[in-house]
Amino acid sequence: MIEMLEFEAPAVLVLALPLGWVYWQWFRVRGVTGWLRATLLLLMVLALSGPRVDIGGEGVDVVVVVDRSRSVSPENQAASLGLIRDLEQSRGTGDRLAVVTFGGEPRVELELSGTKQLGSEYSLEIDPDGSDLAASVGTALYLVNPNRPARLLVLSDGESNGRDPMAMARRAREAGVPIDVRPFQRPRIGDTAVEAIRLPLTVSPREPFQFSVWVAADG
Asked: How many angstroms separate the CA atoms of 219 and 216, rounded?
């Protein structure tokens, strides 16, 4: 049973009026040929409007993508768990929820389900020293059923040291899957790093010498 018919470009349907008038004035013929021309014209307009039929039934699929890398504070980690619990409790009829967490690699903490819950904490280990957002969005898209409406919710501070996430964002757009983002604020802590040390190649015992150190620091 067809649940919903949508059009990607519904404004194109308006073209049916002037095209129908042009056909009636100059291209109308009697018999089977006339009906065939009119049908092809109508199908062309419908194709240009981008019709989409939702046959996935009631409800929507939501995949939550959670950043668990070291740059995300414990307070934000706890906030992400609280948000997931709220989504679990607010699921309506037919709604399904999945959870993908990531550090250096993605982990599927919860498959799409209308009843299962994540629990009080994450159960799978991740590499906290990495942040592969692109691979995590790709994993979330892999969970999505193309015959059901779906969207992704990304909880992250935006730091990523994997592939460019924009490629996966374009893939989600092509699949018709919106991506919502709730950014985590990174704590502003000044970092200082020694970039280079220059020493003389040789020195004699007890000979004074000079050396240079290059230090980079956040302003």
From this structure: 9
Using CA atoms, how far apart are residues 115 and 178, in angstroms rounded to an integer? Answer: 23
Q: What is the pTM of this model?
A: 0.60
Pairwise CA distance, residues 159 & 67, whole Å: 9
Q: How many CA atoms lie within 13 A of 7 on its CB side?
A: 11
Q: Enter the tokens of residue 4.
A: 């919903």
Residue 51: φ, ψ to 5° = -70, 145
Q: Which helix (H) or strand (E) holds 213?
A: strand 212-217
Q: Is 119 left (phi over 0), alpha (psi -120 to 50) or beta?
A: left
User: CB of 176 within 8 A of CB of 144?
Assistant: no
The per-residue pLDDT for 1 is: 34
| Structure token digits, residue 47 | 């194709």
User: How far is residue 75's CA from residue 148's CA, in Å, rounded to a whole number?
Assistant: 34
Nearest to 216 by CA among 197, 200, 188, 202: 197
Examine the pLDDT at 108 and tell me if it is beyond 90. yes
The answer to whether 197 touches 209, Cβ cutoff 8 Å, is no
Contact 212, 198 (CB under 8 A): yes
* Three-state SS at 97: strand
